[in-house]
């Protein structure tokens, strides 16, 4: 193991040891155990232009929203400045859907999202904002902390996922390469402090244990140099374990190793009974893998987390997909990514279908939240992209959600602003309102604990998230 991998393992160990993980589980996952509600939080770093995913119908009337949108956004779609080109784009690349009397189009490449919306499993929250300053890092800090008052320098604080895990008495599994601030739990010191006692680092759920050479896994009698060293170290630690008392400087190290080894054994025993489904492994390896195999690996980590949900005390999953800062060539840059996430036979489609077939209780009690730190401007720029905006759409997808639109999708007031410099979607609803409703679904009454400022935060007139879930 090189120094980098060793340090990563030690970091994962430090995260896992404080979680109070149960050690009395049998080898098989009890199918009769009632599944708890879970949240998968997917952050799209860079400010996704969801007005590219969801568009108004083309209209030839210059006074309509459809005409205003297509006449100002066509460059971001990579099409010509002709009404016939706008109309053709609408008719060939988008599927019309209607909700609450409003018709709009969803990008054909997001076939799974279209299906889920038509089945009533998608809630689209409109005009939501995490920040109004258009700064990536500060807006992400506010999005992940769930605190719109947080200063840009407060990067060591807790996140709303960590606070929610504390209320739920559960754990956050971080599926990403680096643990995001969203996962950080609250610390009694407050301020810049956080704790990681409820975080499990699950970047690679099929390799979470202490290092073991591959050749030793396949052949316990292997005589390769790595296998010999591994066996010798294992024998040494086993023999030494009983001779080191709690007064020794090495006591904590030996205890950590013992705890981590036991934790690894529980995970490995469980996962041996649940081979990686072929459809999931195809998301990150082979010729049909996603454009982002990293996102595909996160789908595998999510599946494994549900398989090990009782071992992990799994309540919240943290995921990410970067690369949404689409100042140039927007259609070429974000459509493959949208397809990775929302396409038929792609990330969320494969994950949810696998869960519904193999772990239906878990599928029926899960919710997926998809958000970015801000949206994009109403008018495309000269580089066939869009620049930083403020308000945006956010998605809650679940068999338990009341699907539909929450907030006005295409406000008529935007039409006159399309010609104004740097015009963007008005931020009318604060993230606390949407996120708080999810918290209350998972644990009634928890929103005020996770978001202390929720009652004074902004909410678009007419929007009611209290009935977001069935």
Q: What features would you describe in this structure?
A:
- With 470 residues, the chain is of the alpha/beta class.
- The chain has 2 domains: 3-19 and 38-206 and 276-456, Alkaline Phosphatase, subunit A; 214-270, no CATH class.
- It is 38% helix and 13% strand.
- The chain is built from 18 helices and 12 strands.
- Strands 1, 5, 6, 7, 8, 9, 10, 11 and 12 form a 9-stranded mixed β-sheet that branches. It has a 3-stranded antiparallel β-sheet with strand order 2-4-3.
- Helix 12 (293-307) packs parallel to helix 15.
- Mean pLDDT is 91; it is low at 1-13 and 17-27.
- Alpha carbon gyration radius: 24 Å
* CATH fold assignment of the largest domain: Alkaline Phosphatase, subunit A
Order of helices and strands, N to C?
A: HEHEHHEEHEHHEEHHHHHHEHHHEEEEHH
- Percentage of β-strand residues: 5-15%
Mean pLDDT across residues: 91
Structural class based on helices, strands and sheet pairing: alpha/beta
- The number of strands is 12
Number of domains: 2
End-to-end CA span: 49 Å
- Poorly predicted ranges: 1-13, 17-27
**CATH structural architecture of the largest domain:** 3-Layer(aba) Sandwich
Count the DSSP helices: 18
CATH class of the largest domain: Alpha Beta
Q: Can you tag this structure with a few keywords?
A:
470 residues, alpha/beta, Alkaline Phosphatase, subunit A, 2 domains, 9-stranded mixed β-sheet, 3-stranded antiparallel β-sheet, 18 helices, 12 strands, 38% helix, 13% strand, disordered N terminus
